[in-house]
Amino acid sequence: MRFDTLLVANRGEIALRVIRAARALGLRTVAVYSDADAESRHVREADMAVRIGAAPAQASYRNVDAILRACALTGAQAVHPGYGFLSENAEFARAVAEDGLTFVGPPAEVIALMGNKARAKEALQRADVPTVPGAQGISDDRELSARARAIGYPVLLKAAAGGGGRGMRLAQDDAGLAQALPLARSEALGAFGSDELILEKAILAARHVEIQVLCDEHGNALHLGERDCSLQRRYQKLVEESPSPAVSPALRERMGAVAVRACQAIGYVGAGTLEFLLDEAGDFYFMEMNTRLQVEHGVTELVTGIDLVQWQLRVAQGEPLAFRQEDVRSRGHAMELRVCAEDPASGFVPQVGTVLRWIEPPGLRVDTALEDGLEITPHYDSMLAKYLAWGETREECIRKLARACEAGGLLGVRSNLHFLARAIDHPEFRDGGVTTTFLAGQDMASAHWRAEPSEHALAAAALALAGWPAGGAPQGLAAPGEVALDDASDGKPRLLRVAQEADGGLLLRAWDGHVAEGECRQIRIDAAHRRDGEMALVLGGLRRRLRVALEGGTGAAWVQDGASVWRFLRATRFAGREDQQSGQARLLRAPMSGRVISVDVRDGDSVTAQQTVLVLESMKMEMSITAGAAGIVAKLAVAAGDQVSTGKALMEVQQ
């Protein structure tokens, strides 16, 4: 059972996290990689690395045979699955064990039991664990509808074979359930290889509270307190913290005792997490168990001082836990922000692109594999980095993370950093009152969530695209005269013209929309300096430092001011948009890069405005595209299986 060489069957930041923990224990490490990841950080940092596949890249990390061959090639005696991919695949764990290797995780039969939500609920109900009212093991749609009415709407559909929000759909009535069923099954099948669903009563205005557990093979089972993961979008966590603002010491003890009892009932070994819904009355209900390391494990590590990955590796080698329940102490407060490649202003649509500049914020723990030049593709999860802060108080954590969103930066790919900064500054979050429905009730276009480009940002973009050289005073403009720019970050056209005046100074004129529309703002640039990807500008006596990066090919300029980042393009026209009506035809374009899952219409079909015409998938998210207006499909430009980029024409609808 003892091993000295560990293969990490994963990629990105979690692979780096496991490699570093293994190194601290004196273990050799082996990385695996797809062709797309050949030069990635986790490959460079491991002692050895083995190629396991080409495109599609995501499938490479699910290639069990290739991973086992990599173990044989390198002499690895153990496999750590990280999270995602094969981490909760019982057949993989069984195959590793049958090859005489150590799987860093629970036994295959426990993974199989907890990996099926229906069987897991039944097993834990027998152990006296409170569960959400629902139904499982039903495949007939009519019977599911009848059970939903008996339970009482609203209800949730969930993928029985997995979690993470994939396959999850909320239904308010019979019609909503009928519409949600095929979408939930399709997403579940694509994500987990099974379209089995379970039905649960939707407990609205609940907190998402999870208990971290750690167990060894000698019968010791402990809990390490709770994490609150209530701030979510599309059932995906965005902010996690410990301790929970809603959990008292007495409730923590009760929930922890239930979690330990559940582990003992199923013979659990290793690190794991039991997830609960906590309602307004203080009652809690088991949702699912994650038989692996959680994305947010670092939050627990910061408050307890216990390295969960190192203890996973120790337990896998047969070591007993070196501490008891009474030895586990939580100190201070910890909070994590998930930095994702997505656009909150457009419904959190996944984003792709090339990282032009990544700046890691100082003073806190950052788990990431980001670096300049990294290509963000639609093949993997949208999470790019995790910002983790510890403080004596919750307020201190919030201050540190808010500052980190400004001090760090990501240019070249749209991210949710600005949104995260606004989220933790929202009064409801600061008061600790956020539930899982918080974001659903927010208007992402409101003043709280959106940031208009500042005058400094407009001036920086104008100078960058005008070819203003680095260093020195604001003179020697590469192309004296006017430069027209289009701020494409929020769909609102802006026309900017920068001109060098007779005295050598620079004057920026800015319009929202056409030159003929509205008043022109005149912005005098008093002083400007450019150095190492930053631009310092003095406007009206105020000096601010902004980050600037130019995008090759498109000629776009990315500008960061505080936690906000905008992408500016040279304007070509400011009238209608190509994806709006042109005459009597409507051209539908892809709102995100990804793969076409299905095309539900043919040329000549009549469609209604709300009718789904095709489904896109990117970064584990499926999006149904509607016709947008009644008409006739005049020209299909894509087929199922096609990869499309943002803005690509999908079809034309004749009105």
UniProtKB/TrEMBL annotation:
Residues 579-654 form the Lipoyl-binding domain. Keywords: ATP-binding, Biotin, Ligase, Nucleotide-binding. Its cofactor is biotin. Gene3D superfamilies: 2.40.50.100, ATP-grasp fold, B domain. Residues 121-317 form the ATP-grasp domain. PROSITE patterns: ATP_GRASP (PS50975), BC (PS50979), BIOTINYL_LIPOYL (PS50968), CPSASE_1 (PS00866), CPSASE_2 (PS00867). InterPro entries: ATP-grasp (IPR011761), BC-like_N (IPR005481), Biotin_carboxylase_complex (IPR050856), Biotin_carboxylation_dom (IPR011764), Biotin_COase_C (IPR005482), Biotin_lipoyl (IPR000089), CPAse_ATP-bd (IPR005479), PreATP-grasp_dom_sf (IPR016185). Signal peptide: none annotated. The keyword Nucleotide-binding applies. Residues 2-444 form the Biotin carboxylation domain. This is Biotin carboxylase N-terminal domain-containing protein. It comes from Achromobacter veterisilvae.
